[in-house]
Amino acid sequence: MGNENALPIAQLAVNAFLALTTIYVLVKHGKSGLLGWLFLLALCVLQVTGNALFLSNPSSHGGTIITNICLSPLLLAILGILHEVCAYRDPKLDRRIRFVFTLALHILIAAAIGLVVAGASDLENLNPKASSQLLVKIGIITLLASWVIIFFWALSACRPLHDGAQTNKDRTVELGQYQHGTKVSLALWDIQRQGET
Question: What's the Cα-to-Cα distance from 74 to each of 69, 86, 108, rounded to whole Å?
Answer without folding.
Answer: 9, 18, 15
